[in-house]
Amino acid sequence: METLTKEPTRQAAPPRGPRPPTKRRRGARRNLIAYGFLCAALFCFAMFAWWPIIREVVLSFQQTNLVDDPEWVGLDNFRTVVDDPAFGQAWRNTLVFTLLALLCGYVVPFAVAIVLNELRHARAYLRFVVYLPVMLPPIVSVLLFRWFYDPGPGLFNQALDLVGLPTLSWLDSTSTALISLVIVSTWMNLGSGVLIYLAALQNIPGDLYEAAELDGAGILKRIWHVTIPQTRLILLLMLMLQIVATMQVFIEPFMLTGGGPENATVTVVYLMYQYAFVYGGNYGAGSALGLMLMVVLLAVAAVQLRLTREEN
Amino acid sequence: MPHTKRRGAWADGHARTIVSPLELKSRWGRKIYWTLLATVLIGFTLIFVFPLYWMVTGAMKTGEEIAQMPPTLFPESPDFSVFTDAWELFDIGTLLKNTLFYAVGAWLFALAVDVSAAYALSKLRPMFGNVILAGMLATLMIPPIVVMIPAYITVTDVPIFGWHLLNSPWAIWFPVAANGFNIFLLKRFFDSIPNEILEAAEIDGVPPWRVLVSIILPISRPILGVVSIFTVVLVFKDFVWPLLVLPDSDKMTLSVGLSQTAGAVTQNQIMAGLVIASVPMIIVFLFFQRSIMAGLTAGSLKG
Questions:
Q1: What is the least distance, in Å, from the CA of A94 to any CA of chain B?
Q2: What residues contact residue A215 under an 8 Å CB cut-off, 6+ apart?
Q3: Chain B window 29-48: which residues touch A at a Cβ cutoff of 8 Å?
Q4: What secondary structure letter does DSSP report for A174?
Q5: What is the 8-class DSSP label of residue A279?
Q6: Closest by Cα among A111, A62, A67 to A288
Q7: Least crowded by CB within 10 Å, which of A15, A295, B123, B282?
Q8: Residues A189-203 pLDDT 10s
Q9: Could you tell me where the beta strands, DSSP code E, fall in chain A?
Q10: Which superkingdom does the taxonomy of this entry point to (chain B) (predicted)?
């Protein structure tokens, strides 16, 4: 990256001319110009970021079909959502998905990054390859894996068959469907985690390791006492980002299982989508569910902010 | 924030890491190192490259061969006509044209909107600037998908203006411009530009927009590159939002179009469609690898 390393030059005295406008007038003019530059962004944020957040709360307490005037219905939407048999299942699946995705998608990339950082060869190739799936449109990864999961000629069962292991029914069984979705999701998102950790690891000064080595710390001890404390902030940040990202899982159940078999892969966002866009536009119930998810995600973000502040 | 040292996700320094050079040079160290390297290379290639190889070769297999058990490693008679079939069946010409149009438009619009906003917040410092910035950054905590229902309703009838934006490119462009992360990155970069230059320009009577265009933008090229690529990639990869707001088949994006038609064509044609859809992104990655890696780490590390 380029940078500016200009020494501040001493300003020549302002030329004698007409007196500059008073401070207040200049301030008002400055504000006007600034808001001129800001207005387009303010419009976009107001209409498509801030307003929808407020509207989600409003819609949760309304019944509306977008044609007639909306009607206030108190907590009815929340009752509808909570009484739905799929509700508990959706939250459970989302949490299990998040936990499994964290195991695969949080711990593994860090370990992979540590190994990559030790290697002296083929680093460019490995970095390129690990990020390749991240660049693909998710629909490509999802449809590709749908074919791999095919119980007959699909790649995975053929590979299991080749090494003499029993084949699995992947997406068609309640016991393996959710983990199958986690595998796809991890495959397509692992790369960004690896590269972010790798950058963090490269910023650790080498002499810390030397000092640890002089103190007689073995390799595992060096990781525990140097690597992890040095990357603590980024580990914390990534944990929260991962939780927030995986709680929004949608395209995997939408394209691969349709929430089945027997609701084994219904997730919160998928259920929300169904309320609003599949079963006759129940926008109120969908928004109520969305509001619950929003509260959970905000709580996660709040925890993260507090922890980060304590660290600093 | 701008890096001066070539350090970060792309530089191959041989700095001291966990294992010391001495340990590496020992007989065991060498053995372990080469075993590990071989394992990682083979593992990565199998996990990340082989699926893509399977996709490309799967496209070229005949209907019988693709269903064959055990599968063949190479197509017996590679058939390239499947790509033209897929192109026509999925109507990829239209889908790709749409997606490129949305991506380029989003890029130009988001860059114009976010650069002006970041410039105002960083250098012109209006009243309530910090409140506005906080409000923009707060949106980062609530992922767009969580508010997709109210956002969709907004698009069907934009408040005050009463626009109906379904099937209109603006349904993509407006929300893309409302990106707190872009504003954050740009503002942080502009903050690192010394104010003296701007003051000098102001005294010379140069208007603010000229300052932005002729002084700030030329030195902000690296960060503009990062923001541009991320915006284009975002539009290309997005699925749920275009699925909701661009329902007409002649307005669809490539991702949505593929998902709609995938049920009606054969397995090798699906794979051919996926290969075609992957090519643009892989090209972008090959060309802009450095900017992408820079952007990844810029957001998460204190540069």
A1: 14
A2: none
A3: 36-37, 40-41, 44-45, 47-48
A4: T
A5: S
A6: A62
A7: A15
A8: 999 899 999 988 988
A9: 62-63, 71-72
A10: Bacteria
Q: Check CB contact under 8 Å for B48 and A206.
A: no
Which residues in chain B are closer than 8 Å to A123, comparing Cβ atoms? 12
| Window from A72-81, A153-162, B107-116, B172-181 with minimum mean pLDDT | A153-162
Nearest to A177 by CA among A276, A258, A74: A258
* Residues of B with Cβ-Cβ distance to A60 under 8 angstroms: none
**What is the token pair recorded at B101?**
């149009």
Three-class DSSP labels, chain B: CCCCCCCCCCCCCCCCCCCCHHHHHCHHHHHHHHHHHHHHHHHHHHHHHHHHHHHHHHHHCCHHHHCCCCCCCCCCCCCCHHHHHHHHHCCHHHHHHHHHHHHHHHHHHHHHHHHHHHHHHHHHCCCCHHHHHHHHHHHHHCCHHHHHHHHHHHHHCCCCCCCCCCCCCHHHHHHHHCCHHHHHHHHHHHHCCCHHHHHHHHHCCCCHHHHHHHHHHHHCHHHHHHHHHHHHHHHHHCCHHHHHHCCCCCCCCHHHHHHHHHHHCCHHHHHHHHHHHHHHHHHHHHHHHHHHHHHHHHHHCCC
Pairwise CB contact (< 8 Å): A4 & B271? no
Contact: A1, B292; criterion CB under 8 Å: no
- Chain B neighbors of A138, CB-CB under 8 A: 237, 239, 255
Interface test mutation site (partner A, options B5, B6, B14, B18, max chain A beta carbons within 10 A): B18
Q: Which chain A positions have a beta carbon within 8 Å of B239's beta carbon?
A: 137-139, 251
Name the one residue in this structure whose structure tokens are 């002499």.
Answer: A207
CA B108: distance to chain centroid? Answer: 15
What three-state secondary structure class fits A8?
coil
Summarize pLDDT for B86-117 with one digit per residue, the tens. 999 999 999 999 999 999 999 999 999 999 99
Tell me whether residues B240 and A251 touch, CB distance under 8 A. yes
Q: Rg (Cα) of chain B, in Å, rounded?
A: 24
Looking at the complex, does the CB of residue B3 fall below 8 Å from at least one CB of chain A?
A: yes
Q: Which residues of A151-179 are buried (b: 16+ CB within 10 A; e: fewer)?
A: eebbbbbbeeeeeeeeebebbeeeebbbe
CB B58 within 8 A of CB B68: no
CB A283 within 8 A of CB A68: no
Digit-coded pLDDT (tens) for B12-29: 445 677 787 777 778 888
Among A10, A144, A242, the strongest candidate for a mutation testing the B interface, having the largest count of B CBs within 10 A, is A144
